[in-house]
């Protein structure tokens, strides 16, 4: 191979890694939720089954990532938020905020098998592979509960001192979560179930979305006020460089370790994408136009596809101020974006 050809090949490879050409490749209608209403929250991708779990109020819809077809639903819920997948136990754990519980189901049959008492507004929920525990974060109670997924029992409850939002695990025993009302990030040691650090995410005042590059130890904090993404050192809490502008109403962030792309999905209808050039340098590469309300997102590590969902909305009432948009029942749909 000639030296010139090799240099061109390396240049093309670098360009492909830093570029982003995400566009809509599929829309999947999901229909109405049992019992009415059209609440929707977290989307979770399970690489082992290649299933996409979509929060839908009284149910979690399950879609096959390769065919785009629905394969079933976990039903009988009140107002669900997220799901933690524990493949080794063939169990899923759903945070049902309205019921103040965590609902356990069989990953293969999608049948509910048990219920674990939680607190009101059980919201973000993740599985920590280091401790092999499930962590559920409760917004109204400003707390986190640690669950033994094998025994299906609560091990401990931890006061957080603020309202938690999206959480991530580093795989080595640290859990990170945003405190939305404090503009802070807390670091929890999953071996002791205690807060080891509490850091300001300033200039972020309303921290919501969170993703992590586990290799470079960088946290990506999506902020609603102001509309920015903050990069933070996961060991010191130091904010790295200047924040990046994003759309309004951010709710989820993801990091793709293969491409080095960071993405934040927003209720304004954008997926704002950045590239990690180095641990201390980041470059905006694309702002993908999605749809109003598409604020939660999941990521397929095999295809690098991004999944967001939203619904159609009722027109605002005449003269109404600060009215939250009301989704039309039966209009929830999953949007798939690929490169």
Keywords summarizing the entry:
339 residues, mainly beta, Methylamine Dehydrogenase, Chain H, four-stranded antiparallel β-sheet, 1 helix, 28 strands, 52% strand, disordered N terminus
Instruction: Please tell me the overall pLDDT.
Output: 93
Domains counted in the coordinates: how many? 1
Radius of gyration: 20 Å
What is the number of strand segments? 28
Descriptive overview:
It is a single chain. The protein is mainly β. The chain has one domain: YVTN repeat-like/Quinoprotein amine dehydrogenase (Methylamine Dehydrogenase, Chain H), CATH 2.130.10. The protein is 5% helix and 52% strand. The chain has one helix and 28 strands. A four-stranded antiparallel beta sheet has the order 1-28-27-26, with no helix packed on it. Strands 2-3-4-5 form a four-stranded antiparallel beta sheet, with no helix packed on it. Strand 11 and strand 12 form a beta hairpin. It is globular and about 45 Å long.
